[in-house]
Amino acid sequence: xxxxxxxxxxxxxxxxxxxxxxxxxxxxxxxxxxxxxxxxxxxxxxxxxxxxxxxxxx
Length: 58
Prior knowledge:
This protein starts with a helix and ends in a 5-residue tail after the last helix. It has one domain. It has helices at residues 4-26, 31-38, 41-53. It is mostly helical. The chain is built from three helices and no strands. The protein is elongated.
């Protein structure tokens, strides 16, 4: 599929943006707010693993 590399790139960019946002949010003092965002880290890492180590088949 010719769109696959483009889609792959977009997904990786979104993962990186989410990771950067989590790092930014982690710098805030409000622990309850931070803990609500940090729970997304494993999901991001799982997606990154899937899309970086395996071929995407749509």
